[in-house]
Amino acid sequence: MSHDSGPHQQGEGRWTGRSVPRVEDDRLLRGKGRYVDDIALPGGVEAAFLRSPHAHARIESVDVTAALAAPGVVAVWTGDDVADLPAMLNKEELRTPPGLAELLDPVVRMTPMPLLAREKVLYVGQPVAVVFAENRYLAEDALELVEVGYAPLPVLVDPEVSLSAEAPLLHEHLPDNTAVAVTARVGDPDTAFAGAHAVVSERFDAHRYVASPIETRAISARVDPYSGRLTVWAGTQTPHRLRDAIAHTLGLAAAAVHVIAADVGGGFGQKGILYVEELLVPHAARLLGRPVLWREDRNENLTASSHAREQIHRIELAADAEGRILAVRDRITVNFGAYNMTGLVVPYNSLCHLLGPYRVPHVDIEVTGVLTNTTFATPYRGAGRPETVFAMERAMDRLASELGLAPEELRARNLVGPDEMPYATGLVDRSGSPQSYDSGDFPELLRRAVAKADVEGIRARQGEGARDGRHVGVGFAMYIEATGLGPFETARIDLAPDGRVRLAIGAPSQGQGHRTSMAQIAADAIGVPLRIIDVTGGDTEATPFGVGTIASRALVNAGNATHRAGKLVREKIIEAAARRLGVAADRLDLSDGVVAAKEPGGPSIGLAELAGRAPLPGIPEPTDGRHGTEISETVHFRPPGFAVASGAHAAVVQVDEHTGEVSILHYVVVHDAGNIVNPMIAEGQVTGGIAQGIGGALYEEMIYGPDGQPRTGTYMDYLVPTSSEIPDLDMDEIFSPSPMNDLGVKGLGEGGAIAPQAVLAGAVEDALRPFGVVVRRGPLSPSRVRELIRTAGRS
Q: Taking residues 118-144, what's their average pLDDT?
């Protein structure tokens, strides 16, 4: 992989800005990871869930008599057994920020999900009963003995059909199948369209696929027999929210629940929400008096864990004769599945990211989230941005064709310039504030992508004609991403008695390398070596307050909290050393873990001695009551606004007209995530996002039949790319530090996943231009490419 670091990034310290090897990797590579399934709890039982085979049906009866008598069964629960517990709501995700509510008055309808279905089921895979047994094998055997009487109901799979007046209601307490709805307008789009030189109108579909992490969901719970406290180990991205939900559901104080995010084998948003299994397992641990473990199998993960991406965009672009965009109009339909799990998160992300890096004076966007008899949808890496970028970038390609302009030239003519930063779009951002791009150089991103893609060389090769039916094409896609979502994140730093530094943050890691990057930030802020810093993330005991690792927010929020806490701890260390050494604080400096006088030959003291080495073993150092020996700080960082990352992707592909195979010959990514703490980790994050984006562009699709039955429920049918399908990436980066935080950083965990579907669709369309092909949806599997070629002449 080539990597051009571009201009020297600003703000480098001794540790930040360096590709320090990840400290967590040694343990993981040696097989010493500690995932939920690795935590052995003596005397535990395992859970298995009976899931609905119907997409929509009344439950007429449930008989568990035979299952209760099965070998090794401890308990069997149905909806009646947990009817006294409140239904599940992802309350934080469903909350509408006051500013957004006041300005746009969106519709957000609640659809509480019963912990176990009692009256009816709304999707294939919905939990109906749960068996607890001595092991998973016995629990699965007992599931087969549970008898459920179902009365099938009409099934809705297509969201547009679900919106029709004749459609049956999924939730009887709602007036229709609309889950959310919001409209945003800027300027006078109707007049702009009426006077435009060119208008393109298209429908683009973002297809449904799933996060599919290596580690499926898992949760384990135990009640401490001495304290009565409930401890929960979970593969979660949001341990504090899970703690609060468990406490609310079970009627406990939050302090009575301790949630620990164990090692997590990938989350990507799928583990960032609340699920009923995560409430039932702790409840069972309390009622059964034994530890309880549940982990998903792969079929459950593909069919019953959250899905993502499915959207319909009916988009129009208006432009003048020079190709300057005058207006955009988009009607976005989002398939929410059977329940409204996360409200405006994905729909509004799509709305406020549609304009991307382009200057668009007049805007008219409507978004409707629709309930259907499919598995519920939630954020997945990119969270509404890949879908909306696919629509906008495809529309840009169609507009370029209409105007006879090169796709890259049309984009260049419409980019917001660096001299316009901060740039106000006229829209409202997700927090309810006026949307503003804080920094960036979009024209430079595009220039570098075009240069690296060798557009002139590709056009020359296209002019020579296809070789043996193999056509070459080049595509471009650009995006912006508002990162660093609030409301806050926590960091606590303690100087331990042995002189080591303990850093606890509220954001757990699922592979982001927090134990390295956060330690780098702390090391620079305090003035200590990296090797003496220990990092804990996602433990509600270590940090009582936190939000989680979602929405490209960890580095911005937890990183800046760490930076500020480190600065305060540094001050405390120097003040304590000044008292101990009898030297004024302004004459001391802290470097490499030693506080020393600035003048040569002066006194010094190490952190271990300063932190608590008493004159005699076991006897604490005396204090005057005002100056304790404990040195610690806790900071809750609250971002003042979004740090906007951005990027430009270019792809060169070869399409075989005979087989429909798409081969990626060259993949270019130029990204801007502000200052970079660890370039190696940043490169890995972008690479991983691109790999998942390529999976969605070429391979992955969750398909439902008209009966609501998932047809791609195993890896025999649901294709995910392996390393051999991901090309070497040609990476470049620019640095536009964010003024929204002390470190000047922007989130980048999701950025790589945002543009691949759009850029590969554009490249395939460019390759198949001789056939008149227009790519309106993915994935671009061989069969779909062949169908595009066959039907292009008839379109």
A: 98
